[in-house]
Amino acid sequence: MDLAMGLTKWLAGPIARFVDADGETAGERRAEVIEHAGLPGEYLDDLGLRHATRAVAWFILCGVAVAVAAVVVIPISVFANERMKDLAFDIAEWVIFFPFWMAAVHAVKMVVIRYLPERRWNPRSRLWRAALLAQTPDYLLAALLTAANALWW
Length: 153
Hints:
- The chain starts with a helix and ends with a helix.
- The longest helix is centred in the middle third of the chain and has 36 residues, at about 45-80.
- The mean pLDDT is about 85.
- It contains seven helices and no strands.
- Helix 1 (about 5-10) runs antiparallel to helix 3 and helix 5 (about 80-115) packs across helix 7 (about 135-150).
- It is an all-alpha fold.
- The protein is flat.
């Protein structure tokens, strides 16, 4: 199980409310969200649902990170010295922007999948699998964008 799948299982309830999942009970809606996040990607529709669900999971985590960072950083900014303030803001920046960029990566993948012609998708192609199914490039790209964001500001 990858990190995004674990995150989706943990946040399945809020994701189900956000995407208006079908189901009569909360458990059925959670199960549907978990199923969508774990689709293998043999078909483009399944792959689009997979990335949509994961993008929402990362955006929700980003919102939680903003709230937690605000609760932690505000008292530090009031009572700590300059060195501690800088460290706290740097850590908060990484905690907030990494999930943001992961959500953005999954959202971009979802848009690419939406406009990708069905005949172009080959689930057995190494290039397509690396671009649209592999998780390691997503984590590396999000970490690189977070580092660039930290250096830029």
